[in-house]
Amino acid sequence: NARTYSYFTNGVGITMVEVDCLTGDHQVLSTDIVMDVGSSLNPAIDIGQIEGAFMQGYGLFTMEEIIYNPVGMCMSK
Q1: pLDDT digits (tens, 9 = 90+) for 22-71
Q2: How far apart are CA 57 and CA 51, in angstroms?
Q3: How far is CA 37 from the centre of its chain?
Q4: pTM to 2 decimal places
Q5: Residue 74 CB-density burial (10 A; 0-12 exposed, 13-18 middle, 19+ buried)
Q6: 66 burial level (CB within 10 Å; 0-12, 13-18, 19+)
Q7: Of the residues 28, 70, 74, 75, which has the fewest C-beta atoms closer than 10 A?
Q8: N- to C-terminal Cα distance for the chain?
Q9: Do the bridges between strand 10-19 and strand 26-36 make them parallel or antiparallel, or are there none, so unpaired?
């Protein structure tokens, strides 16, 4: 009876964004994240992990194709 994880966390988040319908440009106005991490050994590390996970997910789902010019400079906004 092997357990995959030795502990479980639960959380929820909501983000308010403003989207320009003509250009597709967007801006995050506010984000609220609530996590239940149980008894934390170091709250600063937990907060950093949660914020980092949010930013990684935000980047993953909002990034389109990345375009580079011939010299390697990123041309995508």
Answers
A1: 988 899 999 999 999 888 889 999 999 999 999 988 887 887 777 889 99
A2: 10
A3: 17
A4: 0.67
A5: exposed
A6: exposed
A7: 70
A8: 49
A9: antiparallel
**Rounded to whole angstroms, how far apart are CA atoms 31 and 17?**
9
Token pair for residue 39? 């008894």
Distance CA 8, CA 18 (A): 33
Coil, strand or helix: which one is 10?
A: strand
**Tens digit of pLDDT for each residue in 3-27?**
777 777 889 999 999 999 998 889 9
Residue 42's identity, in one-letter code, is N
* pLDDT value of position 2: 63
Taking the CB of residue 37, how many other CB atoms lie within 10 A of it? 16
